[in-house]
Amino acid sequence: MPLLRLTSIVSVKLKYARPKKGSSLLFFYRRVPDDIKPLLPAGSKYAAKTHYVVSLQTSDPKVAAPRIEKLLKQTTEEWEYLRNPTRAGVRRQAQQLLQRVGFDPMYPEETEEGALWAFEDYLEDQLPQSVREDRTIQHGHQLDRHLSPVHREALQVLQGRRGFTLTDCLDQYVAARPSTDKDARLVFGYLREFLGKDRDIRKVKRQDVNGFVEWLLAGKHSEDGKSISTTTVHRYLNTLRAAFSRAIRENELGLDNVFAAVEIRGKGKDAQQRHPFTVDQLKALHAAVGTWVAVRGWDQLRCIVTVLAETGCRLAEVVGLATADIHLHAATPYIDLKDHPWRSIKATGSSTVSTRKVPLTPRAIAALQAAHKLAQGSAFAFPQYTSEDACKSNSASAALNKWVKAQEGLQGAGLTCHGLRHTMKDLLRAAGCPSDIQDRILGHATPGVGATYGRGHPLEMLADWLAKATAPLATEGTARV
Q1: Are 79 and 100 in a shared domain?
Q2: Is residue 110 domain-shared with residue 178, that is, in the same domain?
Q3: What sequence ranges are listed for the domain Core-binding (CB) (predicted)?
């Protein structure tokens, strides 16, 4: 550890820092641990090095210190990951080890015999001395428990004992699409439960898929035996189809996707119709919000339901708003709906658009002003339900639906928050709003190529039509902040 001179009388020793000959700059200098060298992928910045050296771009120890701390944290985390990787990481590192000797699991016969022997010798060197000397241990599966996860994986692949399991498929899919983590793990959990084990995906047959569908429809996945709708089954199958498709493509498995074009008995016939609110029911909803606010003050749920009723937005679009998405002081106040890491706007498709700006009515403005105060400086408009990790719109939906169904004038009507979106469609129609403007407000894609030309409708025009659509409700007043 070199002595770095700060002044003529003060010097310091700065760990992991060294000056370089012929330069006044300091360099981060850390030894690469021997145990991770065999685990390093080809092309790694640590590969074939005894020390990892990075310029700190300064000669001032006080400036260098925080940069050293950052690099120290980074290298420690990366090396620890190599030592204790995730399941997907284990598989990836094992494949990298095998690739170094030219072994391709898809074409094992093309690997040179000498290279295989050399690699087997290398794996043997990873075993404890007592195991190497034990002549009773002869088979690959007997060696597995004595090897590290990465070396065990490599041995299993080398000996043709390692397939591509449902868990591998899930991990690879979630790694590529982190937003699907919760839903994908739920569906794969059901599939593993049905199959009875973590099966190689190459051994999942079409009859298994058909049996899985019937198992779900019969409610056998649930402790209380409650069946699920055909729409939910369809959504589960879409997740599995996408995950299998990715696994087959990225790993060159050469399989047909057994989850493609699966038939679901009675699909759509059990779908429950979404009931829109009548004008009187919508007035009752606003009156219930007004009563709540007068007695208890605003809370996040009452803010959310008011914005839903006044904009026709999807629940997740409102719940997942960032504070920066809300523009209350613009000439025409609006919310800017766009993708975020914690919540993506419904993907572009045959009937949806991804991003849009929706103007705000006086009621919606009052609710969002109250939400701003409740958020207390948070980056999220509704921090009770949204964080950097997730948007808990389902939790908000469950709480709101329970509350809505208990309000005077709404009881027994089977109304839900999603019905507010259908209600706004009815209000816009009744106001004579042109279809393309309805689509722009609600986030539906207008048919025809021409609809994609230009900048779209002016925000003021959208605001005028929203004002006309909600005019029948104006007599009920607006809850105050």
Answers
A1: no
A2: no
A3: 164-248
